[in-house]
Design brief:
This protein is of the alpha/beta class. Helices cover about 50% and strands about 20% of the residues. The protein has helices at about 25-35, 45-60, 80-90, 105-120, 135-140, 175-195, 195-205, 205-210, 215-235, 250-260, 265-280, 290-300; strands at about 5, 15-20, 40-45, 65-70, 100-105, 125-130, 145-150, 150-160, 165-170. A 4-stranded parallel beta sheet has the order 4-3-5-6, sandwiched between helices. It has a 3-stranded mixed beta sheet with strand order 1-2-9, with helices on one face. The structure holds nicotinamide-adenine-dinucleotide.
Length: about 300
């Protein structure tokens, strides 16, 4: 059932493994990949409590040394102070350039850990173990890392690719349903902007997807990662094509900001996708009916559209 694919970026290429129960074999996978001498497992307090021990055990069983460093969960932690605190934690433990980081968590953890890896000792390797749907289909792939400053989101950061991405679909079982549904907005985004067959498939398989059936969830995540990888391979630094992945995000970000960041990201993106498509229809850039079918699929997943 496990699926793998490759992000092809020359020397910076890396594999993505997707399956159920991947978490318990991360130690063996890391040992086989020979990425680092020892590891720091970086996670927010919530995810660390749920899955930290399992990942630590897996590394220990594989004979790899690993220490856990945590920070409080939520976007509120995605700032420079957290980076400074984690860097001090690494330095106090004697982590050097031969060591690596493991990002275990959602997009916040991935963005923080990736940025820390990019700048700690001018760059150390890291791997992504995404645990939210959003992180599994989007943020863990592609190498965008960074933190927020009071002037705006993601204003400080770096393009820095992971050495591998390990996706365990089983962990979605503990994710709050709003977080899962929010992630579905990004999944629908891929269908709406890149792959019409996938868009239709999402409509046909709604029940199985919402029931987290591995036979649907694994291929769904794989297809999203594949689309993201294909775009990133052609435009790693968002000079042109990669902007396709921002479909719905310009208006979405405005809606998110106007809500005082109370509305979850995926919900704002859902509203943004419908609004921008309606504008496109009005401007003669999209056929009439397109906005309606996007709205219909979003509503089928109980996402807001206005
Ligand atoms: P998040 O990392 O804050 O996770 C959401 C919540 O879910 C957190 O409270 C977390 O503790 C909890 N959680 C995570 N996994 C869980 C699990 N398996 N079971 C139970 N609880 C779990 O948020 P997110 O939505 O994953 O990511 C949002 C962030 O991602 C934003 O900061 C956004 O800017 C960033 N992002 C980055 C990219 C990129 O390309 N780098 C792309 C999209 C979004």
């Amino acid at each position: 059932m496990e699926q793998t694919l490759q992000v092809g970026l020359g020397e910076r290429s890396y594999p993505i493994s997707i399956g159920s129960g991947v978490l318990d074999s991360i130690g063996n996978r890391l040992r086989a990949a020979n990425i680092a001498k020892r590891y720091a497992l970086i996670s927010d307090d919530q995810v660390a409590g749920l899955y930290g021990a399992r990942v630590l055990q897996s590394l220990s069983d594989a004979g790899l040394s690993c220490e856990l460093l945590t920070f409080p969960h939520g976007e509120i932690s995605k700032h420079l102070q957290t980076i400074g605190d984690l860097a001090s934690g690494l330095a106090e433990r004697g982590f050097d350039r031969k060591d690596g980081l493991i990002a275990l968590g959602g997009g916040v953890t991935g963005d923080i850990t990736g940025f820390l890896a990019a700048i700690y000792m001018r760059g150390i390797p890291f791997v992504q173990v995404p645990t939210t749907l959003l992180a599994q289909v989007d943020s863990s792939v592609g190498g965008k890392t960074g933190v927020d400053i009071p002037q705006g989101k993601n204003l400080i950061g770096a393009f820095y690719q992971p050495k591998a991405v390990f996706i365990d679909t089983e962990v979605l079982g503990t994710l709050a349903s709003t977080e899962f549904i929010g992630g579905m907005a990004e999944v629908i985004k891929y269908g709406a902007s890149i792959d019409a067959d996938f868009f239709a498939w999402l409509g046909e398989n709604r029940q199985a997807i919402l029931a987290l059936e591995p036979s649907c969830i694994i291929p769904m995540i794989r297809r999203c990662c594949e689309m993201k990888a294909t775009v990133v391979e052609q435009d790693e630094r968002e000079g042109g094509l990669r902007r396709i992945l921002n479909f719905g995000h310009t208006i979405g970000h405005a809606v998110e900001a106007a809500s005082g960041y109370q509305l979850i990201h995926g919900f704002a993106v859902a509203i943004g996708m419908v609004a921008v498509t309606e504008l496109a229809v009005k401007s003669g850039l999209a056929a009439s009916g397109v906005a309606g079918s996007i709205r219909e699929l979003l509503e089928a997943y109980e996402l807001p559209t206005a």
